Amino acid sequence: MEKDTKKIIITGSSSNISKELLIKLKKYNLKIFSCTGKKKSNYKFDFSSLHHIEKFIKFLKKIKPNYLFICHGVLQGKKLLKYSKKNITDTVNINLISKIRIIEEVANIKNLNTVVISSISGRDGSFDNLYAATQAGINVIAKSIIKKFINHLD
Fold it and tell me: Can you list the domains of the chain with their CATH numbers?
């Protein structure tokens, strides 16, 4: 890898947004690390697991990327009454806890440009209310971080 080659990490690389991003990035001189929970991924992280979230953070610090796109998420697509306990835990851990933990950590990584993907459901709601709530949570965290960043600049 050339010295000036930029490194980019994309989580949730099996999502449609990530797939489109990967297509567009192929024409650039980038070292791309695509991470997903799928078995066929070179970099597999199960963001429903607190242990794997911490493993991802160590990976992030080791790779020292220039860019991080946080695109992972899960949509069960059902009413909360139809969720199993595991569905609830996985949805909250993947859509909210993992992203908060990663966002808190990237604030300490110098020269890292980060994009966090949420969903319109966080603003407008969804048939799947737990999904909408986790997306709204990400939106609130992003606003909170921006406010702290701006206050730090003043």
Answer: 6-119 (3.40.50.720)
